[in-house]
Amino acid sequence: MPMERDFDKQYLSMNHFLADIEGRAFRMAQIATGNRDDALEIVQDTMMKLVQKYSHHQTSEWKALFYSILNSRILDWHRRQSVRNRFRSWLNWSDDENEAVEDALAQHPTDTSHEPDIKLQDSQFMTGLNTALSALPLRQQQVFLLRVWEGLDINETALIMQCSASSVKTHYARALEKLRGKLEDYQ
Predict the structure, then answer these.
(1) Residue 79: other Cβ atoms inside 10 A
(2) pTM for the complete prediction?
(3) Listed residue (67, 80, 27, 42) closest to 161, CA to CA
(4) H or E element in which residue 1 lies
(5) pLDDT 10s digits, 55-83
(6) If DSSP codes are grouped into helix, strand and coil, which group holds residue 9?
(7) Where are the alpha helices (DSSP H) in 34-95?
(8) How far is 77 from 71, CA to CA, in rounded Å?
């Protein structure tokens, strides 16, 4: 009986963890891929892998493990895309699926206390931010999102990204510089 309770507790903890992290992970994957369906598939695959392989680990380890898996899945997606694009260019095929990236504000509840001009400015800023994030090189994008959105420190980010702490610092500084340059009109 006690073992069954431990399993139930671990199961509920995992469900809570995944529910808490799924929205941010989806946005990270969507920004990295530019495609809603691919982002959903990447996040679902990441969640399945975490549950299958790492659910027995301590709950304090799940976040780093999750983002390591997510980062690997995003890199795999980019590798597959580059191979597909090479074949498309050789064969002169084009990709007819040009889906618009979902508006970031659609994921947030509407605040009716804002004036229309403030809402417009916020919407324009979010559109600019999404565009600027999407334009960053993948490593800079991922480091920025892990550090800012997830609040991970340099060492945790380095572990997830499988690089040195100094590399994380460099990618983060370059991402900030590029984002500030592209978003200076919104200040």
Answers:
(1) 10
(2) 0.63
(3) 67
(4) none
(5) 889 989 999 999 999 999 999 898 888 76
(6) helix
(7) 36-54, 59-91
(8) 10
